């Protein structure tokens, strides 16, 4: 949530900041701004709205200078308007700040600073930081930032410009991501790697409560006691093109088309001589025997991957699994101990609720294995074991390819645990491995067949409410299909277990109500057919997702989108793609901004 960027070097700062913000817009896009040190004064240009508006403003009256900070906002405190946009500047005009996160004790600090004569012009928590640093500034900006962050409670990634420092600026972080880009005669800060990838592949990944002083030739890192910290350079091994649209109309379509590749990248390197080898995961058969319970904890789409994870781990490894949304888990005093394994799932590796659930689990002694997409992210660094999903950068706000890779990782884990525990035999183990390896080809077929979904969407995009019903793994899949549709098309939708519908919700089905039914579980086909008949009898229009060989469904559903005849057990990795495509085409038909849906941001780094 919110993207921040900073530059110092010999080039004009404004275009570099704007370019970086473009790459970070997925993190928030209700307002944007830059602050540049222009002839000894901090000049701020900011406004409500998308980045194009800021660009127009900057082009009319460009601040000139080669040191600056920028911000693209997802509002938390104060509505999106010009005044609440970042950067915020202290009353003296000496300090400018961009911030991602939430200052929890801002009201207390505001009261104190107001009594000291500071005037507040915005409703944000961030403005407090600008005044607080100003208050503590007595000629040493690093010390002022250190004293300030030691008084701040909450989360932050900060970029700080000081009028008295024409050749340096400062940054700091806690619980919100921030990296430093190391250039040649120039240096950068950013919330995420794509913002600086055009200029350098060498980065420092900052830890909590680290403070950085950047000049064009040097980057010094300190801890919050002011002591120097030695950092390791992290080399980014993916290129700019993977974070660009590459000719696709939307990132979301590009990312769905990448699903075959990223599933292959996630699965194949972990199969060695017919065995699953999970990188550096050090969980032995002995450890597994001692595990009392597995908790899977995540948010949103990653949580839905976890629901599939529960089914498959319980089915194969026969270890009880609880799955929970991170924001609930962390506050419910969960009954976990050192006998439990917690599996954390996160694309960004920075989701604050998930990160805090991880910390809560570790505090209670549990071992934490995380499934993460972003290398070096907070969740990856704080986990005992990490299994990376190799989905590459996911830019569209709605998660697609990351989900397929999260499922792939969960299948690998379920199979590995089950085999180590002796709960499945060699033949079954080898058979499922072969099926997993074939998944990319099956997704390619689904993608090639997408016209039928586009056509259906063009006829039904005016639907007011859509139900997704499924049983077993198809129920887990329905949850994800429903979320995808809601978030990008703004159509109300609910996911129900097929058998549960008649316990209340079927009352909402009337003439013309759209019902989407994944029917990929062979043992549950008959039951689902009954459910389809029940809703059809009440006037529903049914779109089914079924295997090619399933001829029964064609007789009851209005339209059937087929997937290849994959084993029911691994069907979710293939069958989710038609649901993602359905959401995409519905949103497109409605004229929605597919990649940047309203009210959302990609990386939820605030509670
Ligand atoms: C939905 C979506 C969100 C994320 C959720 C968790 O399309 O993207 O629901 O899945 O915010 O994010 P990560 O996986 O980054 O922890």
TrEMBL record:
Keyword vocabulary terms for this entry: Aminotransferase, Cytoplasm, Glutamine amidotransferase, Repeat, Transferase
Active site residues of this protein: 2 (nucleophile), 602 (for fru-6p isomerization activity)
Gene Ontology biological process terms in this record: carbohydrate metabolic process; fructose 6-phosphate metabolic process; protein N-linked glycosylation; UDP-N-acetylglucosamine metabolic process
Pfam short name (any one): SIS
Key word DNA repair present: no
CDD domains: GFAT, SIS_GlmS_GlmD_1, SIS_GlmS_GlmD_2
Gene Ontology terms, MF aspect: carbohydrate derivative binding; glutamine-fructose-6-phosphate transaminase (isomerizing) activity
Domain Glutamine amidotransferase type-2: 2-217
Listed EC numbers: 2.6.1.16
Cellular location(s): Cytoplasm
Main localization (coarse): cytoplasm
Function of the protein: Catalyzes the first step in hexosamine metabolism, converting fructose-6P into glucosamine-6P using glutamine as a nitrogen source.
Subunit annotation: Homodimer.
Protein name, as recorded: Glutamine--fructose-6-phosphate aminotransferase [isomerizing]
């Amino acid at each position: 949530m919110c993207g921040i960027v900073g530059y110092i070097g010999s080039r004009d700062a404004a275009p570099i900041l704007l370019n970086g913000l473009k790459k970070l817009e997925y993190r928030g896009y209700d307002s944007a701004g830059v602050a540049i040190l222009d002839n000894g004064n901090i000049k701020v240009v900011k406004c409500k709205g998308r980045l194009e508006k800021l660009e127009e403003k900057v082009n009319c009256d460009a601040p000139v200078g080669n040191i600056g900070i920028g911000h693209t906002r997802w509002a938390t405190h104060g509505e999106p308007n010009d005044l609440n946009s970042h950067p915020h500047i202290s009353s003296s005009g000496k300090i400018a700040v961009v911030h991602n996160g939430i200052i929890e004790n801002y009201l207390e600090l505001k009261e104190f600073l107001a009594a000291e004569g500071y005037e507040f012009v915005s409703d944000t928590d961030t403005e407090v930081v600008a005044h607080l640093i100003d208050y503590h500034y007595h000629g040493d900006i690093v010390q002022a930032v250190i004293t300030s962050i030691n008084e701040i409670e909450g989360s932050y990634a900060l970029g700080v410009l000081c009028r008295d420092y024409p050749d340096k600026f400062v940054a700091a972080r806690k619980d919100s991501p921030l990296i430093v880009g190391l250039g040649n005669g120039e240096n950068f800060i950013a919330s995420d790697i794509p913002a600086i990838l055009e200029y350098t592949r060498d980065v420092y990944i900052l830890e909590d409560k680290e403070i950085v002083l950047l000049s064009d030739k040097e980057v010094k890192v300190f801890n919050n006691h002011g002591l120097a910290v030695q950092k390791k350079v992290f080399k980014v091994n993916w290129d700019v093109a993977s974070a660009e649209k590459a000719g696709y109309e939307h990132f979301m379509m590009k990312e769905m088309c990448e699903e075959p590749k990223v599933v292959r990248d996630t699965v194949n390197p972990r199969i060695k001589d017919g065995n699953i080898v999970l990188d550096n995961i050090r969980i032995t058969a002995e450890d597994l025997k001692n595990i009392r319970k597995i908790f899977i904890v995540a948010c949103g789409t990653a949580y839905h991957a976890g629901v599939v994870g529960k089914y498959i781990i319980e089915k194969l490894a026969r270890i009880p699994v609880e799955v929970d949304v991170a924001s609930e888990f962390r506050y419910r005093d969960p009954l976990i101990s050192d006998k439990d394994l917690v599996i954390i799932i996160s694309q960004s590796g920075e989701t604050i609720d998930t990160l805090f659930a991880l910390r809560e689990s570790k505090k209670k002694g549990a071992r934490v294995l995380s499934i993460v997409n972003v290398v070096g992210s907070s969740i990856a660094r704080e986990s005992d074991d990490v299994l990376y999903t190799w989905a590459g950068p996911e830019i569209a706000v709605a998660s697609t390819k990351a989900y397929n890779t999260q499922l792939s990782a969960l299948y690998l884990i379920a199979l590995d645990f089950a085999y180590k525990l002796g709960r499945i035999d060699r033949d079954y183990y080898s058979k499922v491995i072969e099926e997993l390896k074939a998944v990319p080809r099956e997704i390619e077929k689904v993608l090639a067949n997408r016209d039928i979904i586009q056509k259906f969407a063009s006829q039904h995009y005016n639907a007011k409410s859509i139900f997704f019903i499924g049983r077993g793994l198809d129920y887990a899949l329905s949850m994800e299909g429903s979320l995808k549709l809601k978030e990008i098309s703004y159509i109300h939708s609910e996911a129900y277990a097929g058998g549960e519908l008649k316990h209340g919700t079927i009352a909402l089905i009337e003439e013309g109500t759209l019902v989407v039914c994944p029917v990929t579980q062979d043992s549950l086909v008959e039951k689902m057919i009954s459910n389809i008949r029940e809703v059809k009898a009440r006037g529903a229009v049914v779109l089914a997702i079924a295997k090619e060989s399933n001829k029964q469904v064609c007789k009851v559903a209005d339209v059937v989108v087929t997937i290849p005849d994959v084993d029911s057990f691994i069907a979710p990795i293939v069958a989710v793609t038609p649901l993602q495509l359905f959401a995409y085409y519905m949103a497109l038909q409605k004229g929605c901004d597919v990649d940047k849906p309203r009210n959302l941001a990609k990386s939820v780094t605030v509670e």
